[in-house]
């Protein structure tokens, strides 16, 4: 990303990197799917690796890791990685 100031909100870079869920809306049907995976794949991979190392490799305990591990217990480690990725993306921008 060349200039972070061009995004008004911290969630906007997610769409730029392809980290937003796919939406399908038609009449009464409204569902949210997986991430769209459009945009820079290298950035997505680096953020995923960072989230993975926070959850599995970091020996320290801090608020983000504690919160993500609670999600991992309920929903699984893969979903917890993505949620951690989304949080770190919001903090980075």
Characterization of this structure:
This protein has helices spanning 12-17, 41-56, 63-75, 77-92; strands at 21-26, 29-35. It has 93 residues and is an alpha+beta fold. It has a two-stranded antiparallel ribbon. A hairpin with a 2-residue loop joins strand 1 and strand 2. It is globular. The mean pLDDT is 82.
Outline:
Helices cover 55% and strands 14% of the residues.
Give a count of the beta strands, DSSP E runs of length 2 or more.
Answer: 2
Q: How do the strands of the widest beta sheet line up side by side?
A: 1-2
- Principal-axes geometry comes out as globular
Report helical residue fraction. Answer: 40-55%
Which regions contain 5 or more consecutive residues with pLDDT less than 50? none
The helix count comes to 4
What string, H for helix and E for strand, traces the elements in order?
HEEHHH
Distance between the termini: 10 Å
Instruction: Specify Rg, calculated over alpha carbons.
Output: 15 Å
- Pairing-aware structural class of the strands and helices? alpha+beta
Major sheet summary line: 2 strands, antiparallel
Beta-strand content estimate: 5-15%
Mean pLDDT: 82
